[in-house]
Amino acid sequence: MPESSRRGLLFGAAAVSTGALLAACTSNEPKNARSDADTAPAADDKPGAPVTIGFAGPQADHGWLNAINENATSRAARYSDVTLEITEGSNDTAAQIGQVQTLINKKVDVLVVLPADGKALTQAGLQAMKAGIPVINLDRIFASPQAYRCWIGGDNYGMGLNAGRYIGERLKDKPDAKVVELAGMDNLELTQQRTRGFDDALKNYPNITKVARQAAEFTVESGQAKMAQLLQAQSAFDALWNHDDDQGVGALRAIAQAGRDEFLMVGGAGAKSAMDAIKADDGVLKATVLYPPTMAASAIDLARALGQNKGVGGMAELEIPASVTLYSAVVTKDNVDAYLPTGFS
Predict the structure, then answer these.
(1) Which residues pair with 323 in a beta bridge?
(2) Alpha-carbon dihedral of residues 113, 116, 120, 123, nearest 10 degrees?
(3) What is the C-alpha to C-alpha distance for residues 61 and 64, in angstroms, rounded to an integer?
(4) Which InterPro entries match (predicted)?
């Protein structure tokens, strides 16, 4: 997803408390992954000291980004000891810096920030830390580790790796298999990481060749236009990896208009529309690789633990970890029912 506008094993959504949250990180395929909305804090997770959490998130101009904001607010509402001070989401770095400074001036106990631009917001993170307000840096990482107490986010390289492995296993017995890639915005590091992971996975399958790659812009319109170009240029291929389920809506339109169905498609992020299509199993879309927006719910759990001077259950340490990288689970027809409640619109 675009960094100005963006973004596994499922992590925060499967967590029922901060303790369960980090325990979930060790399992690759949870038996019962539930959305944050369907999950309550564990019975032994009793209210503690009051914590005011400041949340500076993105402008909700994309399904994934909207889900980030919803996961943060719904998770905070579950805790009687948490007060959430939330800013109006912004993709303008100057505006977001001002919002963070306002939260600092309000003397919140902990800050959770998903920066519009990690590098540009680094000074704001440093300012908060110097003011004695610990920062949970969500997804887009600040340029300095001194600007945050804990980073939690997705694994872009892992997304590509797992997409490539899934496609590789499906095509491993097909001679001279051909794959194409519908990427995100090429000027973003996250797009480059996803492509690198995908290419590295395909190195293990010498029978598979990536014959084309087209960059889109994480929008429905760009997905449709760029997919149409790929289809016109490639008369036949065996698999498509699309980096983002929002642009995948457009890609599927182009595929339907072209009347093509000779290949399998793998999406990215975990939109509900993609999961519905996977469950129906009546088209080319067979899987999606998660980049879970439930990381925002997990960030609230971590911020609460930090504000109450707690560690996390399942770990011996007295403190929360310095970083948490989420796993990019592959959702298929076989496990889609477990993940469907976490799909975002």
Answers:
(1) 151
(2) -20
(3) 9
(4) Peripla_BP_I, SBP_2_dom, TAT_signal
CB-facing half-sphere around the CA of 73: CA atoms within 13 A:
13
State the Cα–Cα distance between residues 94 and 302, nearest whole angstrom: 27
Calpha distance 281→287 (Å, rounded)? 10
Residue 170 burial (10 A CB sphere; 0-12, 13-18, 19+): middle
pLDDT, tens only, 188-221:
889 999 999 999 999 999 999 999 999 999 999 9
Burial group, residue 218, by CB count within 10 angstroms (0-12, 13-18, 19+) = buried
Q: What is the pLDDT of residue 10?
A: 28
Q: What is the pTM of this model?
A: 0.84
What string of H, E and C letters represents the secondary structure of 173-241?
Answer: CCCCEEEEEEECCCCCHHHHHHHHHHHHHHCCCCCEEEEEEEECCCCHHHHHHHHHHHHHHCCCCCEEE
Q: How many CB atoms lie within 10 A of CB 192?
A: 17
Model confidence pLDDT, tens digit, residues 278-327: 999 999 999 999 999 999 999 999 999 999 999 887 888 999 999 999 99
Give the torsion through C-alpha atoms of 119, 323, 80, 344, to 10 deg. 70
What is the per-residue pLDDT across 227-252, written as a single tens digit (0 to 9) for each? 999 999 999 999 999 999 999 999 99
Residue 186 has pLDDT above 70, yes or no: yes
**Residue pair 309/23 in contact by the 8 Å Cβ criterion:** no
User: Of all helices (H) and strands (E), which one includes residue 32?
Assistant: none
Domains of the chain: 12-154+292-328 (3.40.50.2300), 156-290 (3.40.50.2300)
Closest of 113, 162, 161 to residue 140, by C-alpha: 113
What region, left, alpha or beta, does residue 132 occupy, with left being phi > 0 and alpha being psi -120 to 50 degrees? left
